[in-house]
Amino acid sequence: MSKRSNKESAVERKGAVQKGLENLGAKFCEEIDEGVFPWVEMKSRSTDNIFYSPEYRQYILGDKTVRRSARVISHLRPFTQMVWAAYFVHELLQQKKTSTLRDVYYSAQAFDMAFQDQSESDNIITDLETSIESPRESFNVFPEERSAVFGDLTIQYNVPGYENRRTNLSSHPDGMMIGPALTESQFVETSAERVIVVEKGAMFTRFVEERVHEKFNSILIYTAGQAPRSTRYFIRRLNKEMGLPVYVFSDADPWGMHIAMVIISGSANAAHLRQLTTPDAKWAGVWATDIEGYKLPSEQLNEIDVKRLRELKNDPRYTGGLWQREIDAFVESKRKCELEAFSRYGLTHIVDKYLPERLSELS
Amino acid sequence: MDATEAVGILPDVYIRLTMDGQNGANETYTLRVMDNGSGIPAHQMPLALGQFLFSSKYKIKQARGTFGLGGTMTILYGQITTNKPVIVTSGTGTSRIVEYKLMIDIERNRPIILDRKIHVNPLKDGERWHGTIVELHLGKGSYAQASAKVLEYLKQTAIVNPYANITFVDPKGRLYKFNRTVTQIPPPPKETDPHPHGVDVETIQRIIRSTNARNMYDFMRRNFHRVGDKTAAQFLKAANIPAKTNPKRLKPEEIVTLVQKMKEFEGFLPPDASCLSPLGEDLLRAGVLKELEPEFVAVRRRDPATYLGHPFIVEIAIAYGGKVPARDEVLLYRFANKIPLVYDESGDVCWRIVRSVNWRRYNVAANMPVAVLIHLCSTKIPYKTVGKEILSDQAEVSKEILNAIREVARELALYLSRKERVRRQVRRLNVFARYLPKIAQFSAGLNGVEKPPETDKLYRSQQVFKEYATKDEFAESEPFDSRLYKTVLVHVANKHEANAVNVRVLGMAGSQWTELIPESTLTSGSELYETLRGIFKQVKVQVKSSKPGKEGLIDAIVDGVSE
Questions:
Q1: Residue A1 pLDDT more than 80?
Q2: Max CA separation in chain A (angstroms)
Q3: pLDDT digits (tens, 9 = 90+) for B427-459
Q4: Which of A17, A33, A76, A128 to mutate to test the interface with B (most CBs of B within 10 A)?
Q5: How many Å apart are CA B169 and CA B153, to the nearest integer?
Q6: Between B432, B439, B446, which is nearest A90 by CB?
Q7: Would the ipTM clear 0.85, i.e. be above it?
Q8: Is A233 a catalytic residue?
Q9: Is B436 in CB contact (< 8 Å) with chain A?
Q10: Which has the closest alpha carbon to B19: B143, B152, B147, B134?
Q11: Which class does domain A192-362 fall in?
């Protein structure tokens, strides 16, 4: 079994973010000294500046920019909040600590910088992401949601107290939580040849029990529904840094389909970021056509499902042949089913029959 | 009030209400009203107060009452509810004072004189007392319930009679004083003949009874306002009435026709306003300032106009802030011939007009302390009901009221928008003051330096006077270096609890100090906020006491923003 190892360093990337924040501070100081109101320019995130890029296979921001300046009275508060946020996350980076959006909201109050509500502080963090063009995970602000990973991947921690310590992600059968420490760790080596992503905890556990990681030489990831940003970032790293193909398994309905799509092409909300998508990942099922093909027990689509399908049909991310074919199949059959539907034919049916067939079909 | 104004005396009115007794829900009171008017001649006293429709005059002028009904009605009400007589005492400045005890014979509409006394009217400071005192008893009332309306009525009376002293002692012995703040009285109205467009059959009959004209031509030219020889002849020709007809021989139906023809004839000149006695803008402003103490007031006296042959003048004031209560809607005070109208507001045409105005266009929002005062002067107020509390919709009058409201509302709009501009400027400065130091602090932290950069080039706030006691001569603040700043705002607050100060602000342009804010008075507790226009090297504030020897206490701050 050949081992792959990592080329990109998480530590270097953090250093660049830190340097970028310091440069921002230096620019503001210089401007104030010269009697110029400090300002920043960033890409506009308004809906008229969000476009789908077939090249990047994700939503991106257009050329429109907004200039936020301390001279404009209506900008002054958000501008100050952003400078504070930059200062705060710079401190996090320096002290190698992590935080969450909720945490940022409360931390502000210690600096007499109270936000009206969390959506205001979330928005300021997004401004900062846009301005330095890096996801908040790169400045140690992590999502609250947690997901898990299991498989043969050796990582080396960067977080304080664990520096240079290594661990293998197959060491715990429940999987390891994809938290800040894991997201920012260095990927050392793996024998896996692919990544299999499932949206449901029950299926993840089944896969571990059925030794899918060994049978299919894979790293297993559980997203807990819509994948959190750090998980999307983690999947991207496995794909880009370790060169592993990614297969996503979700329920056979418009919502499951979209969980796969967000991992592949991202969301419009994150159009300002490039580091959260895995354009080469593949939606491996369950497809609408599988319901008939594998004779799976199914349910009638409801009105909201049908409405959602109509939206997806015209979504620029869904232009590919597979997507269009499956959307049409859903509309045609008016049926949906869940990953667990395979249990109709025994607990191991999905692993014994479906998985090998689908993986060979896609590779 | 009319009795004083007519003879140019500043009115002093004293009103005392005392509770005599209580029998279940039936409370009885004694009302004593005293004025310093010209007094009632002794021989007229019983008739003036003890008989309805005492007046036989047909000549007209603006007066608070019309037929003297109000006083007599009150006396009658007292008599019906308590069966007690009224005591009227009056002096006309002669050596005697006459006192009558009267009741009214309701069936025959005649006064019954129960008693008559003569008192000596002593000479005091070279003058003898003149005025009238009426003391009567009232039953079936409740001061507890009526007190709010009574006090409101008196306050509003004080607004439109700022030259009067009004004193009221209520049944609990509480003293309410509404003192005069001016000593001018509006010029009294001149008595005029009725205008032919404004007469009714009853008036014509009264004129016929008293005229000495022997033919219609004389009748017309002698007894009517704005009717001369030529107009009289033209009218009679147009109305097809022979000039030789004796007016005393007119049959009732002919009188009706005459009135009809008078109304139809378009050749009469409009009535003039000499029979009216408006307050005038200065007195109305004084009244509003005195009772409402507003932050802003605008007043307007419209030119005289006529409706149905009756001359009228509309006077309007608009007041903002001070004691004006903030309501959902603009507050309305109505007055007719210097009498406040306090009942049934919503039925009044004034109410409808005020509601019809789009106040937002004048920067007036809900819950703002804004009051509109409408004073209608006329020889005939177009009351809707016999209660004389609400005005009916007369197109000409309504038009004048609306135009007047628009005029003063425009002034208020300017004031409010200026106030809003200053408020925004102050808020703007506060925002700079609050956030710029933080930006400097966090930027320094990011940059890894300890000392934040100085933000003075962007924004500076300098206290140039701190709790400074003013002197009789102008004292100067330290100068504020304003070279860097596009916007400079001066804020001066008079913190003294009683004394006023005078303030002015100077700016250095070239090498000369020029006056940027001319000398203005800041009363106790008030503040001045002003944005300076133009670019100056330096700005300084000068202050002195408004009155010699009375020092004020001031704080002054100058802010500058380079934007």
A1: no
A2: 75
A3: 888 889 889 999 999 999 999 888 999 988 899
A4: A76
A5: 14
A6: B446
A7: no
A8: no
A9: yes
A10: B143
A11: alpha beta
